[in-house]
């Protein structure tokens, strides 16, 4: 089978965020079985695809994403593009990844590679399916986080505008996703909650739940962590729900913890922390920004804290902490779709006060924390692993290829794009 992937970032084994690690693990397995081509974006200040994937893939084409340029003129153009998108009721996240040059690369790659299946990773990449008129390939959308469940993409406007912006963006997402879902042969989501949230908009297009796999380390990390004891949160802070979780930890949860355990430290690790988050660093609060490897921070952590109250999709950071054999305190939202029990493999909290109370309890009881970490590791070994996910993708590909191609995907792209956008 020939598989063409449309990616919002270059594939790398050292990907610094959850989506990148999901794609890297998927590709590692799928390139053993199928011929794979990739068209992807690359940030202006970040490296492209690594040699591992260049050797395994037949074709990798990269385009520098215009919105990642840092010049003053580029920033001005980006804001003007946002304003235009608002007027046209186009989701801001989608508009931020719009590139005519990328659409040309996609069309050219499809004509040269002649794929059997075209797979768009993330809804923002689904916009490029309209550039493929006349290509008789089956099309799949991997919906990491439905836009209708995601928080607002932009938080740089004055606060009094955020409410209006989010309402307009929500309307735009519903419109865009209805358009997109009807132009693919299948949609893959990570959780049953995401499946329910898009079922109506998907219409006749089938929606499959395939939770992402994760790498299981050969050996667990230190289940108790180092000294002094510290809490850890990891996330890419381009993603608004991660910013919200980090802010809650620093401003609400951690102060309550320190009132009882003043020596405890908090580490916020991940790329692109916004200025308003970096300003919260201080006594016993370390905000690292991007790091080349999260493992040393995870190894030293007494527990992993993920107060996720926004968004959808699967929290890869939580899966990786469980697989590493660490005690995890999180929210019901963060473990949607996973057969995890409160007090067995994880500890759950419904608000900031509960979060602080449960953290303090675990930090005071090494035996309970050790037992929780062991059960987390055992569960991960039994339920996670990329082979399970890839087997489900193989079944999906087989089903799609046994059906005739959906010629309705000849959607008269230029007409639909001008009408929608």
What is the count of structural domains? 2
Q: What would CATH call the architecture of the largest domain?
A: 3-Layer(aba) Sandwich
Class based on secondary structure composition and strand pairing: alpha/beta
Number of strands: 13
The low-confidence runs, each spanning 5 or more residues with pLDDT under 50, are 407-421
Quickly name the level 1 CATH class of the largest domain: Alpha Beta
Strand order of the largest sheet: 3-2-1-4-5-6-7
Q: What is the CATH topology assignment of the largest domain?
A: Rossmann fold
SS summary, helix count: 15
Distance between the termini: 34 Å
The outline comes out as globular
Look at the structure and name the CATH superfamily of the largest domain. Glycogen Phosphorylase B
Residues in helix, % = 40-55%
Explain this structure to me?
Helices cover 43% and strands 15% of the residues. The protein is α/β, with parallel strands linked by helices. It has a seven-stranded parallel beta sheet, sandwiched between helices. It has a six-stranded parallel beta sheet with strand order 10-9-8-11-12-13, sandwiched between helices. α1 packs across α14 and α8 packs across α12. 44% of the residues are buried. The model is unreliable at 407-421 (pLDDT under 50).
């Amino acid at each position: 089978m020939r598989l063409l992937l449309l990616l919002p970032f270059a594939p790398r084994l050292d990907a610094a965020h959850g989506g990148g690690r999901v794609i890297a693990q998927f590709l590692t397995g799928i390139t053993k079985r199928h011929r794979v081509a990739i068209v992807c974006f690359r940030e202006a200040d970040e490296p492209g695809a690594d040699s591992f994937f260049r050797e395994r893939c037949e074709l990798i084409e990269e385009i520098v994403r215009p919105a990642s340029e840092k010049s003053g003129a580029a920033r001005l153009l980006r804001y003007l593009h946002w304003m235009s998108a608002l007027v046209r009721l186009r989701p801001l996240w989608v508009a931020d990844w719009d590139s005519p040059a990328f659409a040309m690369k996609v069309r050219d790659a499809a004509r040269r590679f002649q794929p059997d299946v075209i797979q768009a990773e993330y809804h923002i990449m689904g916009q490029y399916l309209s550039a493929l008129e006349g290509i008789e390939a089956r099309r799949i959308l991997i919906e990491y986080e439905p836009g209708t469940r995601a928080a607002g993409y932009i938080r740089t406007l004055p606060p009094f505008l955020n409410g209006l912006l989010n309402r307009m963006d929500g309307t735009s997402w519903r419109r865009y996703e209805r358009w997109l879902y009807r132009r693919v042969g299948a949609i893959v989501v990570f959780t049953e909650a995401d499946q329910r949230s898009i079922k109506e908009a998907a219409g006749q297009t089938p929606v499959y739940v395939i939770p992402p796999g994760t790498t299981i380390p050969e050996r667990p990390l230190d289940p108790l962590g180092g000294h002094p004891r510290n809490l850890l949160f990891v996330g890419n802070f381009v993603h608004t729900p991660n910013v919200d979780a980090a802010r809650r930890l620093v401003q609400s949860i951690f102060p309550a913890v320190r009132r009882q355990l003043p020596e405890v430290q908090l580490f916020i690790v991940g790329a692109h922390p916004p200025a308003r988050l970096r300003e919260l660093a201080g006594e016993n609060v370390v905000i690292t920004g991007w790091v080349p490897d999260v493992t040393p921070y995870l190894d030293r952590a007494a527990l992993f804290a993920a107060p996720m109250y926004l968004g959808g999709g699967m929290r890869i950071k939580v899966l990786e902490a469980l697989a590493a054999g660490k005690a995890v305190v999180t929210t019901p939202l963060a473990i949607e779709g996973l057969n995890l029990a409160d007090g067995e493999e994880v500890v759950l909290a419904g608000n900031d006060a509960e979060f602080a109370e449960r953290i303090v309890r675990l930090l005071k009881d090494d035996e309970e924390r050790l037992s929780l970490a062991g059960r987390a590791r055992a569960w991960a070994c039994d339920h996670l692993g990329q082979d399970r996910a890839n087997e489900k993708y193989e079944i999906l590909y087989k089903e799609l290829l046994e059906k005739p191609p959906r010629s309705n995907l000849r959607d008269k792209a230029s007409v639909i794009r001008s009408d929608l956008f």
